[in-house]
Amino acid sequence: MHFDSKLPDVGTTIFTVMSRRALEEGALNIGQGFPDYPIDPELAAALTHVIGEGHNQYAPMEGVLELREQISAKLQASYGLLFDPHREITVTCGGTEALYDAIQAVVGPGDEAIIFDPAYDAYEPAVRLAGGRCVRVALAPPEFRYDWDEVRRALSERTRLIVVNSPQNPSCSVADARDLDALAALIRDRPITVLADEVYEHVLYDGRRHASVLAHAELRGRSFAVFSFGKTLHATGWRIGYCVAPPALTRELRKVHQFNTFSIVSPLQYAIARYLAGHPEVWTGLSAFFQAKRDLLAGLLRGSGFEPVPAAGTYFQLVDYGALSGETDVAFADRLIREAKIAAIPLSPFYAAPPAMTLLRLCIAKKDSTLEAAAGRLRAFAATARANR
Ligand SMILES: Cc1ncc(COP(=O)(O)O)c(C=O)c1O
User: Fold this and answer.
1) Looking at residue 229, what DSSP letter applies?
2) Residue 272, CB-side half-sphere exposure with 13 Å CA sphere
């Protein structure tokens, strides 16, 4: 039978491709974003405990109340604001489901969504499945700052959604309060909703503070904010995220959520709720934890030919290999897997029209010993590459 694909040009994501290549080549995978160290044993124990207690049936569609109350307390501690667990907080299957649901809730056929390149890869397919179209505005390396005049030019009568991601994967840049003010001013009189991907809300470096749309007086009333316990609790495989949005937007999001995943793994929600109750400020140490890892890797690579690009947040570090090769990032990343036995993520697949650049993304959410081993391999590769140039 013949049928037309709805996403004919969408292949396997660059993360899956590189992780598969890493396995084939026996390479050290510091590309894909997941920790290689264990979760807190108390979190693991909480899961066993709640399963024993009998929390093994369907959870409520909007999420276990105990968890939504903990999320509300966490939001209050982080941003000093109260969010109603009943009408403004929904538990989802990772941040990914929240992004998908929000997009389906507000984008319709013929609508446009503005996204910023290099863009996390989950946004565009969801917009297209909703019948919409992405208009991409590029953030230029090495600073990856927003150009709000460019955004103004990208707006049209059909714009319904703007997706902002801060701290931003893969550029490691962050939006500040002035960016949010500029965004608010641009959409003030337009029927545009904001989707804020804030899954790295607790990983900002060098004393920076996260500027959440939830804490912005104007944006709060027209935004979906997306978060992930995968990032905050080092448990990406648990697939627990949540969306915070005003009641009218939450109602629409839940209409999609209830027929998408319906409800999220019950014992995982109870386990996180119990864990947060016992560790109410567990996330406050995350910036320092990851900053030490960023500094370790950057320190080991500086001067090697894999030059670290200043990183303001996320658990990634970009490196510029321009001193070693003029190859495209995809070709160079493939050579790294084969010759250095290191898997890294090239940046161009995150762009619709990539600018000329020689950047790779490395994940720092790894044991120090993994980062040291990776840096050793990269330095050895660079020394040979330099000798042969
Ligand atoms: C920017 C960004 N948004 C969303 C997600 C998805 O989060 P989750 O793993 O909770 O679905 C990720 C995961 O890497 C991410 O980097």
Assistant:
1) H
2) 29
User: Which of 104, 75, 87, 72 minimizes the C-alpha distance to 247?
Assistant: 87
Is the per-residue pLDDT at 388 higher than 90? Answer: no
Query: Looking up tokens 């297209």, which residue turns up?
Result: 128
Confidence of residue 187 (pLDDT cuts 50, 70, 90): very high
Amino acid of residue 238: W
Closest CA relative to residue 249, chosen from 288, 223, 271, 216: 223
**Which of 32, 92, 166, 199 maximizes ligand 1 atoms within 8 Å of its Cβ, making it the mutation to test the pocket?**
199
| Cα 269 to Cα 272: distance, rounded to the nearest angstrom | 5
Residue with tokens 């600018």: 355
Q: pLDDT of 100-118, one tens digit each?
A: 999 999 999 999 999 999 9
> Among candidates 7, 21, 2, which has minimal Cα distance to 346?
21
Name residue 8's amino acid. P
Q: Is the pLDDT of residue 225 over 90?
A: yes
Task: State the pLDDT at residue 17.
Answer: 82
Residue-level pLDDT at 175: 97
Model confidence at 389: pLDDT above 80: no
Looking from the CA of residue 169, the nearest atom of ligand 1 is 1
Of ligand 1's atoms, which has the minimum distance to the CA of residue 99? Answer: 4
Which DSSP symbol is given to 347?
A: S
Q: ∠ CA(128), CA(201), CA(227), 5° rounding?
A: 50
**pLDDT over 90 (residue 14):** no
Q: Is the pTM of this model over 0.85?
A: yes
- Ligand 1 centroid to 171 CA: how many Å? 14
Strands 316-320 and 342-343: unpaired
From 18, 90, 169, give the residue whose CB has the most ligand 1 atoms within 8 Å, as the site to mutate: 169
